């Protein structure tokens, strides 16, 4: 039977591309989303992939939703923690709420999804967790102390959980995308975006499918020896 893969924030942008890629790989895919019902409905109509609405930042709601998915679709063997938001502003202008929203969603979401699924993976001795970090978590970014901290936290979370899962056939990895052509980047002012693209050695934004390809690679059977790693997919913008 095909493994069930849940992609958080799977109905739009990078998550959508990840869903399609995992579906092509033969996984039974389930998408999650936060609030945009129209996009979610259109996504399910187009792809046949069910979409479950819950806030990944809400611990109880995430546990309950994962139980529902396990009942309705099947036990969850693959988790892609992709749901993420930005609430940009310099520290002096950033409210506590903007800090907390981003930490709760981007980093808390990873914890909540792992809590909901890790025990089952351990029992079945197979699992794949792929966390979507960011170039801005690696390098920092002006006006993003919340986002950079959460994404940087994802990289630490990945390395720690990888150590806990290794003996049980569970791999935990991260992908750090550079600037990808999605709604999130469309929100960046054009003059700022031009400056960003000028700093990308390949000379363009990335495509969501190029991140999805990395997730497919890490989620595959052949990815079994890769754990605790971060795959940078950023057009050469940040190398270390
Ligand atoms: N785009 C980039 O250049 C870039 C670069 C580096 C890293 N990333 C990371 O890649 C991931 C995807 O980014 P994207 O650009 O594809 O974003 P996006 O187009 O804004 O889509 C975000 C997705 O996350 C969902 N979501 C947001 N908050 C949620 C919550 N609390 N609970 C459940 N789902 C929630 C959204 O659902 P709704 O449709 O219901 O709102 C949507 O499906 C994010 O983690 C982002 O930080 C993006």
What descriptors fit this protein?
single chain, 240 residues, alpha/beta, Rossmann fold, 7-stranded parallel β-sheet, 9 helices, 49% helix, binds NADP nicotinamide-adenine-dinucleotide phosphate
* Rg of Cα set: 17 Å
Count of the separate structural domains: 1
Beta fraction: 15-25%
Overall mean pLDDT stands at 97
Report the span from N to C terminus.
40 Å
Number of distinct beta strands: 7
Main beta sheet: 7 strands, parallel
CATH superfamily: NAD(P)-binding Rossmann-like Domain
What class would the helix/strand composition place it in?
alpha/beta
**Helical residue percent band:** 40-55%
The number of helical runs is 9
Q: Return the string of H and E elements.
A: EHEHEHEHEHHEHHHE
CATH top-level class? Alpha Beta
Can you characterise this structure?
- The structure is a single chain.
- With 240 residues, the chain is α/β, with parallel strands linked by helices.
- The chain has one domain (4-233): 3-Layer(aba) Sandwich (Rossmann fold).
- It is built from 9 helices and 7 strands; from the N terminus they run E-H-E-H-E-H-E-H-E-H-H-E-H-H-H-E.
- The protein has helices at 13-24, 37-47, 59-72, 96-124, 135-139, 145-165, 183-186, 190-198, 208-219; strands spanning 4-7, 28-33, 51-53, 76-81, 127-132, 170-177, 230-233.
- Strand 1 (4-7), helix 1 (13-24) and strand 2 (28-33) form a beta-alpha-beta unit.
- Helix 1 crosses helix 9 (208-219), helix 3 packs parallel to helix 4 and helix 4 (96-124) runs parallel beside helix 6 (145-165).
- Bound molecules: NADP nicotinamide-adenine-dinucleotide phosphate.
């Amino acid at each position: 039977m095909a493994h069930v893969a849940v992609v958080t924030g799977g109905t739009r942008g990078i998550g959508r591309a990840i869903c399609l890629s995992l579906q092509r790989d033969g996984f039974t895919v389930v998408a999650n989303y936060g609030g945009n019902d129209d996009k979610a409905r259109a996504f399910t109509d187009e792809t046949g992939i069910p979409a479950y609405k819950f806030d990944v930042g809400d611990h109880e709601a995430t546990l309950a939703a994962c139980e529902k998915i396990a009942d309705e679709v099947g036990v969850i063997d693959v988790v892609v923690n992709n749901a993420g938001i930005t609430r940009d502003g310099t520290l002096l202008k950033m409210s506590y709420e903007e800090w907390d929203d981003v930490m709760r969603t981007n980093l808390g979401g990873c914890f909540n999804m792992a809590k909901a699924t890790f025990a089952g993976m351990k029992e079945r001795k197979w699992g794949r967790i792929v966390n979507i970090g960011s170039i801005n978590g690696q390098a920092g970014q002006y006006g993003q102390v919340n986002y950079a901290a959460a994404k940087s936290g994802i990289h630490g979370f990945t390395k720690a959980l990888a150590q806990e899962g290794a003996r049980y056939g569970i791999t935990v990895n991260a992908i750090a995308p550079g600037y990808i052509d999605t709604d999130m980047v469309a929100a960046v002012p054009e003059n700022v975006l031009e400056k960003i693209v000028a700093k990308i050695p390949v000379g363009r934004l990335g495509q969501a499918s190029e991140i999805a390809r990395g997730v497919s690679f890490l989620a595959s059977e052949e990815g079994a020896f890769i754990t605790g790693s971060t795959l940078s997919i950023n057009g050469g913008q940040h190398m270390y």
